[in-house]
Amino acid sequence: MNSAVRVSLNTTPQHAQRLVDLQAAFAAVCNALAPLVQQTRCWNRVALHHMAYKQLRQQFPELGSQMVCNAIYSVSRACRVVYQHPQSPFNLSRLGDKPLPRLQFLPQSPVYFDRHTLSIKDGQVSMYTLDGRMRFQINLAPGDEDRFRNEKLREIVLAGKGGSFQLSFLFAQATGDEADDGDTAHPRGAAAELPEYVVVLPDDTFTPPPSMPRTANASLSP
Fold first, then answer.
1. Mind giving me the DSSP string for 123-180?
2. I need a labelling partner for 66 at 20 to 30 A (CA). Which of 23, 45, 113, 204 fits?
3. Is the pTM of this model over 0.90?
4. Are 75 and 103 in contact (CB under 8 A)?
5. Residues with pLDDT less than 70, the chain
């Protein structure tokens, strides 16, 4: 059985703009955290949380505590692919003692949710945005409804581009697959390709696109 359920969202222009704003804010937090990863060579989710959470909350109060935690998870996840995937050109074994390249998350980067920031009840999704909760009606097949009741969700991801948005619900495998804790070499099932929403910068140069909030250019000190 496919481990993921994907649902397209029927958005109005106003809905779409709120989701675009959420994507940009989420990417801004990721970009504020990326220099710390580069400096410390640490991308373990728990360790990053201890090092950066308090400062990120102060720097991005509008995003909320749980979404900051989800952004830390997103950075940890992307770094495991870029720095640890055996086929990545930026794998640590290839870099050796050279400085790590820095990751730049694009404004349309996916947003990760959890049970605190997104819920489903009676065929309706309630999801966090910068301007309060937003709700969508969704149509689930009977088999998918059973999965939400009986299986463990591993990831909830919002992806969107050009005003079209989709939620992906990734379930734990029957073999006991659980949510990544930041210690695995790379996410289970991750492809060899680098994430399309991440740009790998060879040095400290960071030039945000015009549509990216200026706060994305901020950095953290360990």
1. TEEEE--TTS-EEEE----HHHHHHHHHS-EEEEEEEEETTEEEEEEEEPPTT-----
2. 204
3. no
4. yes
5. 1-2, 174-193, 203-222
